[in-house]
């Protein structure tokens, strides 16, 4: 494919001399490309270090520790010699974390594990590991590093003593609420990730967690914590039986904050696995529907319009039938990159299914929404795909648009936009209707 450097959203830099380089390169690349990242292979330390020094901040750096026994330690020397781990770690560029691959025998050495995790280690894995499993784990790390999520903790009581700077560095905000009898309404409006309830408030109204969880619209991924002041075990037992997910003890602000940050990171990972498309990293159908409902509610409260667009790649079945499903996946991924360049932080973008994408533009009327979708359509039309060594092609998509508050619900918006998409197809494709 042409423009390979622009084709994939992320990159992995792999330093290895055996195993992957000799046996698994093609299959490993094939799996990685399906998840929209590329792997660059290096078999010399100097080349790897230079590439890492100039790499994009989102890249991952993977080192097969067999290089310790195979690497040419000095490029000026013509003989090979064993490199010690300390030599390797010393030569790696500062300011980066690395993923290490090791054998089972290496994994049995606790001192080696300790040295790795204490020195520039993002993660490690043991060989043998299948290409599919390795790529899946790397993709999860990309998603975790780039999720960019903003999360909220709702605290029932006066403002708790927490490390606000640490929370802010992880994009977490804390909102406090003092009335237990209206907590369920605040949860519905705010949609927090964690509801933290002080022991004093719980003892005043012990049904508070049950009331939250029995609501049919309660998010099963949301967690309810009790912040316990006393050490009375019967209170903890009663709270757990009453619907609380975890008991936290009142401790120093920085320790309590770290406990909450770690839990939020787990929640983020779980939500990404449920709500994001594995191939493109965009919201999937489930994630889009949930977020769109939140956007509609917020737009209604603030009196803002929304533009809701549905697009579909023209003649996509012909693309798959002519050049294969793998090439079709490439077209989808390239389209996701084009669309992503035209959405802002307050907008939503989803791979709704197959070759169909949905976007929601915040504070956007019908005219502006149509203009933005036309810009996307024209940009995608300029992308050149090399279908054979001698032949290039360009493709198009059609789209339909609906707006809030004219349409009141996410389902109504989708149905209206889908009708307009059908009209665009009927009118000759490669256009936006709405």
TrEMBL record:
Domain GGDEF stretches: 304-434
CDD domains membership: GGDEF (cd01949)
Catalytic activity: 2 GTP = 3',3'-c-di-GMP + 2 diphosphate
GO molecular function: diguanylate cyclase activity
InterPro entries (alphabetical): Diguanylate_Cyclase (IPR050469), GGDEF_dom (IPR000160), Nucleotide_cyclase (IPR029787), Rev_trsase/Diguanyl_cyclase (IPR043128)
A Pfam family recorded for this sequence: GGDEF
EC number, UniProt record: 2.7.7.65
NCBIfam families for this protein: GGDEF (TIGR00254)
Name recorded for this polypeptide: diguanylate cyclase
């Amino acid at each position: 494919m042409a423009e390979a450097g622009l084709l994939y959203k992320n990159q992995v830099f792999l330093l290895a001399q055996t195993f992957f380089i000799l046996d698994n390169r093609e299959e490993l690349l094939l799996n990685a490309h399906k998840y929209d990242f590329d792997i660059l292979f290096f078999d010399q330390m100097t080349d790897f270090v230079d590439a890492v020094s100039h790499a994009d901040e989102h890249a991952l750096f993977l080192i097969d520790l067999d290089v310790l026994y195979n690497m040419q330690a000095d490029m000026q020397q013509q003989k090979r010699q064993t490199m010690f781990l300390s030599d390797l770690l010393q030569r790696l560029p500062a300011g980066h974390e690395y993923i290490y691959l090791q054998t089972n025998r290496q994994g049995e050495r606790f001192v080696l594990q300790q040295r790795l995790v204490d020195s520039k280690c993002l993660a490690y894995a043991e060989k043998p590991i299948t290409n599919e499993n390795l790529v899946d784990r790397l993709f999860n790390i990309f998603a975790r590093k780039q999720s960019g999520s903003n999360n909220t903790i709702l605290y029932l009581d006066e403002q708790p003593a927490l490390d606000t700077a640490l929370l802010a560095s992880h994009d977490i905000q804390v909102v406090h609420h003092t009335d237990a009898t209206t907590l369920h309404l605040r949860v519905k409006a705010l949609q927090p990730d964690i509801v933290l309830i002080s022991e004093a408030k719980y003892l005043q109204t012990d049904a508070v967690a049950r009331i939250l969880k029995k609501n049919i619209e309660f998010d099963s991924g949301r967690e309810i914590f009790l912040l316990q002041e006393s050490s009375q075990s019967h209170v903890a037992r009663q709270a757990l039986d009453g619907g609380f997910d975890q008991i936290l003890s009142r401790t120093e602000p920085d320790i309590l904050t770290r406990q909450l940050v770690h839990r939020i990171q787990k929640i983020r990972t779980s939500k990404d696995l449920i709500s994001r498309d594995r191939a493109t990293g965009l919201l999937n159908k489930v994630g889009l529907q949930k977020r769109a409902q939140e956007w509609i509610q917020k737009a209604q409260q603030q009196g803002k319009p929304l533009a809701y667009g549905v697009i579909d790649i023209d003649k996509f079945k012909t693309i798959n039938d002519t050049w294969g499903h793998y090439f079709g996946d490439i077209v989808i991924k390239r389209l996701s990159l084009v669309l992503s360049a035209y959405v802002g932080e307050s907008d939503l973008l989803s791979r709704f299914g197959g070759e169909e994408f949905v976007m929601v533009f915040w504070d956007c009327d019908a005219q502006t929404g149509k203009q933005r979708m036309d810009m996307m359509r024209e940009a995608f039309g300029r992308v050149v795909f090399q279908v054979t060594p001698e032949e290039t092609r360009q493709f198009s998509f059609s789209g339909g648009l609906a707006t809030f508050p004219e349409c009141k619900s996410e389902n109504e918006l989708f149905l209206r936009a889908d009708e307009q998409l059908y009209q665009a197809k009927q009118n000759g494709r490669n256009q936006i209707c709405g």
